[in-house]
Design a protein that fits this description.
Tumour Suppressor Smad4; single chain; 6-stranded antiparallel β-sheet; alpha+beta
């Protein structure tokens, strides 16, 4: 079994834990690779085991950090590699374990005592651009702060809403606890097969969040004369011209998380209570 290790680069505790995990797996005679960005901030790993994240071809990645670290892994790897997320962030909605549980969790993995939780992603189509899939959300934003954008969006060819707003969030159930939630979207059980559309500060109070089946095709017309900004998971940004069409669909790819319990709600509700 081959492992990859990724850690947030701005917290020494995360880098030290990454080294301890690396050392444990090496001593146990497993093949281990470390993200070169982690090594740049904590140069104690063997140079022969350091790789760019995008080149990692491993069986599992241990991500030590917050949700941003998990999203960085997702946006940098070309394969759907299972992720064990260790919470070294502010909240860690995507994390499975806390730092103190790390080595017990690894022992369970080495013994085959775990399962894979698959989460849906969404894909964006904009002209000839190559845009990464989203685990959390795709956001269309006005290119000028303080100026609204005019959007129409269609579900399976039928007009669903014509809005003037700061933007539109298209989210997975996993992303319902992220930007969509702060914009007034609903909490959605991550096991559901659905896509959320959440207007961002709409002018009309009648523009409300919408939840549609994940097999829906979502077409968005940008009618404003100004440029817009499109973001994916807060990891990818691009400016787009005015008067264009954007299509969003369920991606064939999935994010795979290492889990130890089928029970979602104890940790899920606890993290929500901590945040709110």
């Amino acid at each position: 079994m081959k492992f990859g290790i990724v850690a947030r680069r701005d917290r020494e505790e995360a880098l030290k834990l990454a080294y301890r995990v690396y050392d444990f797996l090496k001593v146990s005679n497993y093949e281990v690779y470390v993200d070169e960005e982690a090594c740049a901030h904590f140069p104690h790993f063997s140079s022969e085991d350091v790789l760019p994240l995008k080149e990692m071809d491993v069986d599992m990645i241990i991500a030590i950090g917050g949700d941003g670290t998990v999203l960085r892994v997702e946006h940098s790897t070309s394969k759907d590699i299972p992720i064990l997320a260790v919470n070294m962030g502010t909240l860690g909605f995507l994390a499975e374990i806390e730092p103190a549980e790390t080595f017990f969790a690894i022992s369970r993995i080495l013994g085959g005592d775990y399962f894979i939780d698959e989460r849906m992603k969404i894909r964006v189509f904009v002209e000839d651009l190559s845009i990464p899939d989203a685990l959390n959300d795709v956001v269309i934003l006005t290119g000028i702060p303080g100026k609204v954008t005019h959007l129409k969006y269609y579900i399976d060819g039928e007009l669903a809403e014509d809005i003037r707003a700061d933007g539109l969030i298209i989210s997975t159930p996993t992303g319902s606890t992220a930007y969509a939630l702060s914009a007034g979207g609903p909490l959605v059980d991550p096991r559901l097969h659905a896509i959320l559309l959440v207007p961002l500060a709409p002018v009309a109070l009648t523009a409300r969040p919408l939840v549609v089946p994940d097999y829906s095709s979502i077409d968005i017309e940008v009618l404003t004369e100004r440029e817009i900004v499109l973001t994916v998971d807060g990891q990818f940004y691009t400016q787009l011209p005015s008067n264009l069409k954007i299509r969003v669909e369920k991606s064939p790819r999935k994010t795979k998380f290492v889990r130890f319990s089928q029970r979602i709600y104890p940790k899920y509700t606890l993290r929500i209570k901590k945040k709110f």
